[in-house]
């Protein structure tokens, strides 16, 4: 399905996308981000928080580290302020990239089991599928943010994977 090089490429893409969003968020300001948007989670800021929370929970599952508190309903308030989100987002992107760069393709075999709060039961799925899902989930919610930015008249980031810089920092 996927291999370790795919995870590195997608981790770089994730960090590049989030770096662009961070610049837009800083320019627009926290109040605007909290007031703007009609997405599933409400505002742009709430959606960005949900995405950070989801990345945190998936990385906890992949690395057997502590999971974030709360569930999907609480995810929209994962960080309190834009500066807190900015720092946490940077750290998570670095964590995902470090994990991907140290992942061996053989670690993608087998199943991953966890308790799903959303489904209220234990779930088991192929590990590679779960990794692909994490990156797909990121793209999905950044797409929602992109749509909300565009609808509000803001310039949205370049999101095409084919246009990601091949060299240079992504964080």
Task: Give structural notes.
This protein has a two-stranded antiparallel ribbon. The longest helix has 25 residues. Helix 1 runs antiparallel to helix 5. The chain is mostly helical and 171 residues long. A hairpin with a 4-residue loop joins strand 1 and strand 2. It contains six helices and two strands. The chain is globular and about 45 Å long.
SSE diagram, text form:
Layout: H1 4-28, H2 30-35, H3 44-63, H4 72-75, H5 82-102, E1 111-116, E2 121-126, H6 127-151
Antiparallel strand pairs: 1-2
Helix pairs in contact: 1-5, 1-6, 3-5, 3-6
Give a nutshell description of this structure.
The chain has 171 residues and is mainly alpha-helical.
Helix content: 55-70%
| Main sheet summary | 2 strands, antiparallel
Helical stretch tally: 6
Report low-confidence residues grouped into runs of 5 or more. none
Task: Provide the β-strand percentage band.
Answer: 5-15%
Structural class: mainly alpha
Task: Kindly list the characteristics that best describe this protein.
globular; 59% helix; 171 residues; mainly alpha
